[in-house]
Design goal:
Structural class: alpha+beta
Mean pLDDT: 81
Radius of gyration: 38 Å
Largest sheet: 8 strands, mixed
Distance between the termini: 99 Å
Number of helices: 43
Strand content: 5-15%
Helix content: 40-55%
């Protein structure tokens, strides 16, 4: 009967205990055979060893002595080796390949790059074949060619730019401009341009991303070349390639643009995605199968030992019937013997170590440790302890760390594996290994320490195809998709969010280990020194990374994002460093630095030191070298500036972590608001049309930190002891600010939280800002695409006929695909960038930084040394939070509850001459332009002392050739509601009466400033109207409306309307500027009115104006019409007439006489008649409209009479533009940006132009 039992693992008789994945602490999917017993039910050592080593039943003779390493070693050498060799399906040599270089000893042929084939400059960054192009275009071939059979090699992308990967013969010439795929008999794939190349390019494949594994395959039996991306076939790229003979085959070849990096694997390591039927060019080690089976023996031994030690009911029953003896007798000698055999194999052929580690050894360690939690830490520790006792173990673990680091770069997020997907398993294993001091020292001493650290922090960014598989079902409010899609998408985003959170948690664990690590150096270093050095090297390496074309060698964006996320969590949520947290200044285990409140401090020497990693950073006052010569700051180098949180805010607006009302990042309203948006459907129906994942609650310790009883309940300003006057651009004297000498030298060696904040801002500027810009693009494009889709659906319902219906359905399919793509991208950005704790940390970061900037703005000698990225990161982060989707907090409290200082800073520094960069000043000015468009933010400006005191005059002086567009938008918004034809019901409820009064007072009190401002407005409006007319004529001459020209016309027309509204406000609030004194302003104003009327009503322009549909995306056709420019002209005339009718101006300049004396009287009268004939019913009704119409009609009658009396008629002709009005075309940078960037300008969060006054 025993012979009928199936043979499992070499056994044919006895008791076999099968335990599946539910039998112990580990969740193992495989089935394990535990034991085989003799006739008495007693397990023998011989039978156990037969099971461990996979031998036939009863193949081992009875033992006569104790089990030791020598006996186990003899079993491995004599019995196991003979048994395994029968099943060894080793790699067989093929005659279809030719190696240029010789063999490496007795090992396989080593394939590398053929040095003589290199064209350009290719640098090996890391052995064996991580290469980078240092020239504009570099190419190289491998040292092997194939002419028969099926072959492949893999390329891991370190960058995702222009690279041409494929195969080429010797007849393919490499030059500075041509490479693989640019000649006959050379074939390449380029995922950046999504093309295949063979002399010419054709669309092929998918776009690639950093971390992709590209499999380059050639089938010379079918004469085909095909490519794979992460194991997925991209299809046959080339067919019918030319047959080649022995020694004249196809070489693996690559061409890289400057700065592009990739790692080539011809078979020196196991392929990540091997393709069935295709062979590696470099043969695997002959002992590969033997080592794999040997490690399987060790795995079985560990499984048995773990169950032996487990508190498992079945194991206890087996012990009670004496059928499960202890394995301690054989566990240690067997483990040592297996490890000894492994090291002897590796020592015999050192060249195979890398392959063995990256292949069977790494797989074995993952099998022992487990890919998912809970992990088997105990079994892994046993393996590591045994291995570390061998002499070659350090080399082995160096390769293991290399393999784990590389695995993080290429790991994909797979939905079915969530939440333990992506790089989680590699990070978890690495973190556990590096908890051993010996291995941490080994890693730190490695010359590749920083390279591997960056690898651990890498995460793959998904492309369109990846997102399709990660988020298979898509839903958005109003969609016609299946009703179940909403729930499915919610589950999907939740699962992906959990995966991202677990990966981020492991990143923090790894960085925490590095921070805690004390390197064995003399003199000794403090904890945090290694982490600080890494951050400094990262900054030095990535100088210029923010440029449009970054220099070679910069880090992957995912590395910068990951380290930013780690540092943000440390500063916002706390370090959780346990007993050793005392090394970090003021570190509390239960709260974050950014939420601490109370007294703040900052070491000024961070700005003033000439460290190599900082000296090239641009400062607010210019370059460091320039500033250090003109403004040396030796007195401040040893100072730490201290101040009280909120000291720069007024008593009424102050909200700090110590006041009763908490900031948005720590208030109880935060949690309430979060809970309101836990159901995405309800939120999305109200807000933007995207999908958001569930949002985790705010940790309790953050609120507790803000309510700490040790902090002051209220911070009040003390009287200033300084007799000096208030600085010009410092808004308010800083109270409670005092410079404090640095303690000792030990403080500079200690990693301070302020240093991490400095690094955080730089990481945000270089790493996060581009991602947020991309997220903003997809969110905006999603809204537009949904609108187009809904409009198309409506047209299909209304017009169900013939060919037009067919085109509409085709357009609908395109719009639907765009919407789905945008929804997936937006969902991913919400998952990866907009988690709740990150928003909290970003808000607290903005609070901290803006307070720091305001404090230092009172110290001229230090303020100019502040890096520019402080200001850029602050402004960008502020607007990201303001526009975040889902919203962080309601807009009504966003500024009031913690960021009133931001308003103070932007209004006091947008024209600060200490800021040398005009782009930075524009950044602040555009922030004001955006914020004042919203009533709730405008109210904050109205209650801000700095805004009311400084902004009106500063805006008038800032109206110049560079900044006139944002200044116009700001003035327009402040004056909104005061113009003719603005509202059917009179003045808009959103106007700012306060700022209108302040502007009027500023213009009256400083006549010189107002005169200069008025002159610039005249000139600018003349130029914009000329540009508008020219643009219309260009389209008219070409008889077609090009999108760029249409957009240009829209922009210029809106700008002209806005400028005309500004003049209308001036005539209403300051009519004396035109009616009193010299008539220069009045004459220029009237000439400008006639000039505009002439362009709008002239026959050629008017006809084409009517034929051209001037509209932007998601804008109604009636948005653009003549009334937008005609209304302020009417308002100007009526305002002047009203002023003339008052007693104050009856004896001054005669408006009627100015118009009558113009040379083009017919044009003037025609223009006024056109204003009378225009249909204003849509703007005014009732008595108000009648009164204004009669007033304008009476003026035209008087003008006609005056003209006849003067008997000075001239032929009607277009008014020539006076030379003094002309501005050089294309000289305005802001204007050019508006045209080229579809009205968004250079500032991506947009500068919205109001509808009118």
């Amino acid at each position: 009967m025993g012979e009928d039992i199936p043979r499992v693992g070499g056994f044919s008789a006895g008791l076999a205990v099968i335990l599946n994945g539910e039998d112990g602490k580990k969740n193992l999917p495989k089935t394990r055979l535990l034991s085989c017993c003799d006739d008495l039910g007693q397990q023998s050592v011989e039978r156990t060893l037969e099971y461990v080593f996979g031998l036939r039943n009863r193949s081992l003779n009875s033992l006569t002595g104790r089990v030791d390493r020598g006996f186990i070693h003899s079993v491995i050498r004599n019995d196991f080796s003979r048994y395994i060799v029968k099943f060894n399906d080793s790699y067989s040599e093929s005659d279809g390949i030719c190696y240029i270089n010789g063999k490496n000893g007795n090992g396989p042929d080593i394939i590398g790059l053929e040095v003589s084939s290199i064209c350009g400059d290719i640098k090996v960054i890391k052995s064996p074949f991580l290469i980078e192009s240092m020239a504009m275009f570099s190419s190289a071939r491998a040292s092997a060619c194939v002419w028969k059979g099926k072959w492949m090699y893999e390329v891991m992308l370190e960058t995702s730019g222009i690279q041409q990967l494929g195969w080429a013969t010797l007849s393919c010439p490499f030059t500075d401009h041509k490479g693989v795929g640019d000649a006959d008999d050379s074939y390449a794939y380029d995922g950046r341009r999504v093309s295949k190349w063979n002399k010419d390019d054709e669309t092929y494949g998918e776009s690639w991303v950093v971390g992709d594994i590209i499999g380059c395959c050639i089938d010379l039996d079918r004469d085909e070349i095909l490519f794979y991306r992460n194991g997925n076939s991209l299809g046959v790229a080339f067919q019918g390639i030319r047959k080649m003979g022995p020694g004249f085959g196809y070489y693996p070849a690559v061409s890289l643009s400057q700065g592009e990096r990739c790692e080539l694997n011809f078979g020196a390591r196991p392929f990540k995605y091997p393709i069935v039927g295709y062979l590696p060019l470099q043969a695997p080690p002959s002992k590969n199968y033997y080592v794999t089976q040997l490690l399987q023996c060790w795995s079985r031994l560990l499984d048995m030992h773990s169950v032996e030690r487990a508190d498992h009911s079945l194991a206890q029953k087996l012990r009670r019937v004496k059928r499960f003896d202890s394995l301690e007798e054989i566990f240690h000698p067997a483990s040592y013997a297996i490890c000894e055999e492994l090291f002897s194999i590796l020592e015999a052929d050192v060249g195979t170590t890398e392959y063995m580690v990256w292949g069977p050894l790494l797989s074995f360690m993952f099998e022992v440790f487990g890919l998912h939690a809970p992990h088997d830490y105990s079994s892994l520790d046993k393996v590591v302890e045994v291995m570390l006792q061998f002499q070659g173990s350090h080399v082995l673990f160096e390769h293991i760390l290399n393999a784990l680091s590389c695995g993080c770069k290429i790991a994909l997020l797979i939905l079915t594996e969530c939440p333990y997907s992506g790089s989680y398993s590699h990070l978890a294993l690495a973190c556990h290994l590096l908890r051993r001091e010996e291995l941490m020292v080994l890693w730190w001493k490695s010359p590749d320490f920083e390279f591997l650290f960056e690898g651990f922090l890498s995460q793959k960014t998904p492309n369109k195809q990846d997102l399709d598989s990660m988020i298979p079902t898509v839903w958005w409010p109003g969609s016609c998709e299946d009703a179940s899609y909403e729930g499915n998408m919610m589950l999907t985003t939740t699962a992906l969010s959990e995966s991202v959170s677990k990966i981020e948690e492991k990143h923090r664990d790894l960085c925490r280990l590095v921070i805690q690590f004390i390197p064995p150096t003399n003199p000794p270093q403090l904890p945090g020194a290694v982490f600080r050095t890494f951050l400094q090297s990262l900054l030095l390496k990535n100088r210029g990374a923010e440029r449009n074309i970054p220099p070679p060698g910069v880090s992957s964006n995912s590395v910068l994002v990951s380290i930013y996320t780690v540092v943000l969590h440390f500063l916002s949520e706390g370090f959780a460093l346990g007993d050793i947290c005392g090394w970090l200044k003021s570190c509390k285990a239960d709260g974050g630095f950014l939420h601490r409140g109370g007294e703040q401090s900052f070491p000024v020497h961070l700005f003033l030191k000439s460290d190599p990693h900082r000296v090239d950073i641009s400062r607010l006052g210019g370059s460091y070298n320039h500033l250090s010569k003109l403004h040396p700051t030796f007195d401040h180098e040893m100072e730490v500036i201290q101040w009280d949180e909120g000291c720069m805010d007024s008593e009424e607006t102050r909200v700090t972590h110590s006041t009763r009302q908490k900031p948005c990042c720590c208030s109880s309203y935060d949690s309430d608001f979060t809970r309101n948006f836990k159901v995405p459907a309800k939120y999305l129906a109200k807000g933007s049309r995207g999908h958001c994942s569930s949002i985790p609650e705010r940790p309790a310790h953050v609120t507790a930190e803000c309510s700490d009883g040790s902090l002051n309940d209220e911070i009040t300003d003390k009287p200033s002891s300084s007799d000096q006057s208030e600085p010009e651009y410092g808004y308010r004297q800083v109270h409670h600010m005092k410079p404090v000498p640095k303690d000792t030298n030990i403080s500079t060696a200690t990693l301070r939280e302020e240093e991490l904040l400095d690094d955080l801002l730089w990481l945000y500027h270089v790493g996060l800002a581009p991602n947020f810009k991309q997220a903003s693009y997809y969110m905006t494009h999603q809204t537009q695409s949904i609108s187009l889709l809904e409009e198309t659906d409506k047209q299909i319902r209304d017009r169900a006929c013939g060919e037009q219906l067919k085109h509409l359905k085709e357009a609908r399919n395109e719009y639907r695909e765009e919407v789905i793509d945008c929804v997936r991208h937006c969902a991913w950005y919400r998952i990866s960038l907009f988690s709740r704790w990150k928003q909290r940390g970003m808000y607290a970061m903005c609070m901290w930084v803006v307070q720091l900037l305001l404090v230092l703005s009172n110290m001229d000698s230090v303020f100019i040394y502040i890096p520019e990225y402080y200001l850029e990161a602050l402004v960008d982060c502020f607007h990201v939070l303001r526009k975040s989707d889902p919203p962080f907090v309601p807009s009504t409290i966003f500024i009031k509850r913690g960021l009133t200082s931001f308003v103070t800073f932007v209004v006091t520094h947008f024209n600060d001459p200490r800021i040398s960069s005009a782009d930075l000043r524009d950044l602040l000015l555009q922030s004001i332009s955006v914020l004042v468009q919203y009533r709730e933010y405008l109210a904050t400006f109205e209650s801000n002392e700095a805004a009311t005191q400084r902004m009106p005059k500063a805006l008038l002086s800032a109206f110049d050739n560079r900044s006139w567009i944002p200044v116009t938008n700001i003035l327009l918004r402040l004056c909104k509601g005061s113009g003719f034809s603005f509202s059917k019901n009179g003045e808009s409820s959103s106007s700012s009466v306060l700022f209108q009064r302040l502007l009027r007072e500023a213009c009256i009190s400083d006549e010189g400033l107002f005169s200069s401002f008025l002159n610039r407005v005249f000139n600018t409006l003349s130029w914009t109207m000329t540009e508008f007319s020219v643009s219309l004529r260009e389209m008219q001459e070409k008889y077609q409306v090009i999108e760029f020209q249409q957009r240009k016309c829209c922009v210029i027309f809106d700008l002209s309307c806005n400028l005309a509204r500004i003049l209308e406000f001036c005539t209403r609030e300051i009519p004396q500027a035109f009616l009193s004194g010299p008539n220069t302003n009045l004459r220029r104003l009237t000439e400008l009115v006639v000039f505009i009327l002439n362009h709008i009503t002239s026959a050629a322009d008017a006809e084409f104006f009517d034929l051209t549909t001037l509209r932007r995306h998601s804008q109604s056709p009636e948005k653009i019409n003549r009334g937008m420019i005609l209304a302020p002209l009417v308002g100007i005339i009526l305002n002047l007439l009203d002023a003339i009718n008052s007693e104050d101006y009856q004896e001054n300049n005669d408006l009627l006489d100015i118009f009558a004396s113009m040379d083009c009287s017919d044009t003037v009268q025609y223009g006024f008649q056109y204003l009378l004939d225009y249909n204003w019913d849509g703007s005014f009704r009732g008595e108000a409209y009648v009164a204004k119409y009669e007033q304008l009609e009476n003026f035209l009658s008087l003008l006609t009479c005056r003209t006849v009396l003067q008997d000075d008629k001239v032929d009607s002709a277009p008014l020539e533009l006076p030379e003094m009005f002309l501005l050089q075309r294309n000289s305005d940078k802001c204007y050019q940006n508006l045209i080229e960037d579809d009205w968004l300008g250079s500032f991506y969060f947009g500068c919205l132009v109001p509808d009118g006054i």
